[in-house]
Amino acid sequence: xxxxxxxxxxxxxxKLGGRGRLSEENIQEALREVRVALLxxxxxxxxxxxFVDRVRTRAVGQDVLVSLTPAQQVVKVVHGELVELLGGSGxxxxxxxxxxxxxxLMGLQGSGKTTTAAKLARLxxxxxxxxxxxxADTQRPAAMEQLRTLGAQVGVPVTGAPGQTPLEICxxxxxxxAARGLTPLILDTAGRLHIDEALLGELQAIRRxxxxxxxLLVVDAMTGQDAVTxxxxxxxxxxxxxxxxxxxxxxxxxxxxxSVRHVTGRPIAFxxxxxxxxxxxxxxxxxxxxxxxxxxxxLSLVEKAQAVVxxxxxxxxxxxxxxxxFSLEDFREQLKQLRQMxxxxxxxxxxxxxxxxxxxxxxxxGESAELGRFDAxxxxxxxxxxRNPEVINGSRRQRIARGSGTSVQDVNRLxxxxxxxxxxxxxxxxxxxxxxxxKNLPGFPTPRG
Amino acid sequence: xxxxxxxxxxxxxxxxxxxxxxxxxxxAVLETDRPIDDALLEELEELLIAADLGAALAADFTNRxxxxxxxxxxxxxxxxxxxxxxxxxxMLSPAAQPLNLDHRPAVVxLLGVNGSGKTTTAAKLASSxxxxxxxxxxxxADTFRAAAIEQLKRWxxxxxxxxxxxxxxxxxxxxxxDAVKAATARALDVLIVDTAGRLHTKTNLMxxxxxxxxxxxxxxPGAPHETLMVLDAPTGQNGFAQARVFHEAIxxxxxxxxxxxxxxxxxxVVRIVRxxxxxxxxxxxxxxxxxxxxxxxxxxxxxxxxxx
Lengths: 449, 308
Hints:
The structure holds two protein chains of two kinds. By secondary structure, chain A is α/β, with parallel strands linked by helices. Helices cover 55% and strands 8% of the residues of chain A. Chain A has three domains: 3-86, Four Helix Bundle (Hemerythrin (Met), subunit A); 102-292, Rossmann fold (3-Layer(aba) Sandwich); 298-440, Signal recognition particle, SRP54 subunit, M-domain (434 Repressor (Amino-terminal Domain)). Chain A has helices at 5-16, 24-40, 45-59, 70-86, 113-126, 143-154, 166-180, 197-210, 227-237, 256-264, 285-292, 298-308, 311-323, 328-341, 344-350, 354-359, 368-379, 383-387, 394-404, 408-431; strands at 102-106, 132-136, 158-159, 185-189, 214-220, 242-246, 268-272, 280-282. Chain B is elongated. In chain B, helix 3 runs antiparallel to helix 4 (55-71) and helix 6 runs parallel beside helix 7. At the A-B interface, helix 2, helix 6 and helix 9 of A face helix 1, helix 3, helix 7 and helix 10 of B.
């Protein structure tokens, strides 16, 4: 996603020229871009409208910080507002003073309730609890078998038998949990439409008679504009205490979360990030805000990069790139800086175009140990070899391998990756104008020196 | 085929329901005699966005309307609806194509992200085709999700269609191999293959899908005759990314749009049709077997922008 919001905003402000203060006039066009970005991220249009008004009020009159461009300033305001609206992180489901704590899951068909139920059970097991799963989906064929299979996988008992109504199953499950001292009790209900009055009535009855402490709406992160209607109807009819956002391991921008939050005011408790039963994580509003804006986790990446990268060295590298005199010595310097920033795949994952980068020099996406080996290999080269790797022939390779305690294959791999990196960097050089953010990375000139 | 007809009414019925929930639908904007100004056009644009057409496509339609206004061909708000209808129907008409089942056996491969409705669609399609006199076989190639095989088996019992299956966790390629062999040996009309849900971003799962396709093709050259992506109507802009990636990996012959009985309208298919030229072959309007229908652009557009 090269066409990220920051890039587009940068273009607007470049065109407008001038800087200093954000005014009603100069942010008008910027806010239009913000609107489009949010709509493309599937935030409901009414929520977008309210949000943009809020950002306008907040941004107008602000002095642009010395260290930021006006575009970055707007992104900062937008990002900050999004984080605030998405709510705090680490919402915990409070345990009831009289066990069992009862958690009810509800949502549309295919949103991921059954899988989420198993994931929650596993999570609580890890925390030392002894949960009970109740299979109250009597609609979908084999839904009960599915929960039973998943329950066996995570080592949590599953209750509920065919022939009973969902209400009977939930009621019996509560008694069973109390009798066996199991908590929390997790109720997996059938998927249903938010306009199906009869089936909503069933949920109301369960809520009334089994009195769950937490009613959770399970929402697919890929949901579009309809998320507001769904959340609103479930909230009106049954009441929502918190939200679980599923399937965030795809590449959807997840704007539905903001819509749901806006109409229900309820916190997002967890996010589902995979098919396996351990793929449930606490919710991080800042990460989702970046994702909605199509930014990757650029903000924290820039912070990390700035903390680590020596500015003068970066400029020196940039010059060498321009002059195409990027030597193995420079490569080593880059590796050192990258290592200081953290695991490489994590760094790449934070970039909005990280996937593309990962695809280019595939082997670069390796472990830190590999980087350490590379450091040793380059250390065993003569200064001449580092400047001019073309001279490294077979016997030199053997010597370098011996000197660094590695193998000739390792040396070959390093040289191959160095060549690949040079190639990729040449491509990036051509794209520099389109990727202003990249300038903050090691090896690229920062904007306005 | 019987299930190809009489769908417009059911679609409209489903959509009338959804319109009650659409705060001030297109009708409310366009019914009036109000003059066309920027505020009106903006409301129109938002209504298209609300139907998940996407910001770019909505802006495009609105600009075309603006041009018509400039040329003076349209002067009142009420005239905009037929205009929008025509834009959309023109765009979607080439997308209304019947299933290609003129082979024996014809192989239909269903794929899509998790929870889009593949298994239910497989069963409904099997039942429809059986109802129109075809001899049908189902293959349970979702060996990953817990009890997915059991789910299809139950459906098979309910609609009286045989399901080829193996144990959970087995190689889906082997299931498909057996199924194609059985369908060919018995000279059946249609084989419907239900696959595991997979996000289009998971490279290994996409590779597995390509392999499944190859297994079918090697055994039966020319097959699969239909490669349908099952997409649920509540899906937003990510539906386009799904279609694009699946199309690049495995060459889709169509989309099956499910869960149109809710309040979501599935507007993302407009973009899929326009940019990828992938037709819409089936739509799902409810939980009953007869709720699987062929795609009628007129009825679909009526649902998006209100009836003419």
